[in-house]
Write a structure and sequence with these properties.
single chain, 7-stranded mixed β-sheet, about 15% strand, alpha/beta, 10 helices, Rossmann fold
């Protein structure tokens, strides 16, 4: 999805992570190799030294985790990819074991113990899809329908994880959050 949205989500996750964990100075990104350039650019703009832990296959997770520890990252962000989603439990467990705040793109990782997630609201996608299906059923050709970017996003914060990490969720994020996991 990085090609679809550029680095917008990585930048937003970094911003929200810094707001929630202001002491974070070195954030590692677990993502596919294609994300590296966007991440490097965004971290340079945010004055954060980039730590990149590329994962294109399941076998690369141990090496990615070793890189994160060797480079002394003090937080993690992930980007959307099937391999990241399938291995989310492993990433959450690594973050918890090493007391690293974890910002992801999916609520499932936050429900499983990640600190926070910011991304497209999947239920918004389904309702948008229903509009397209309705138009097609009424005779519109699918190829004539415009491609639309998602317009609904969600911020989910795991307050239990924040507390375990010694973090206080700022009121601005409490208000902005779609959901707070107590």
């Amino acid at each position: 999805m990085i090609g679809t949205f550029g680095g917008e989500f990585i930048g937003k996750r970094l911003q929200l992570l810094k707001e929630l964990a202001p002491a974070v100075a070195r954030v590692a990104c677990i993502a596919s190799s294609e994300v590296w350039e966007s991440y490097r650019h965004i971290t340079a703009d945010a004055d954060i030294p980039p730590v990149f832990a590329p994962v294109n296959r399941s076998e690369q997770f141990d090496e990615a985790f070793a890189t994160i520890l060797r480079e002394r990252a003090d937080a993690l962000v992930t980007e959307r990819s099937p391999i990241i989603y399938v291995q989310r439990g492993r990433i959450v467990a690594f973050a918890a074991e090493h007391r690293l705040p974890l910002a992801t793109n999916n609520r499932d990782s936050t429900m499983e113990g990640g600190l926070m997630s910011y991304g497209v609201n999947p239920f918004g996608l389904f309702s948008d899809l229903a509009i397209y299906v309705d138009r097609i059923l009424k005779g519109a050709k699918a190829s004539d329908l415009p491609i639309q970017r998602p317009t609904r996003f969600e911020l989910v914060i795991n307050a239990r994880t924040a507390k375990a990490l010694g973090l206080t969720v700022p009121p601005t994020l409490l208000v902005a959050a779609s959901e707070i996991i107590e």
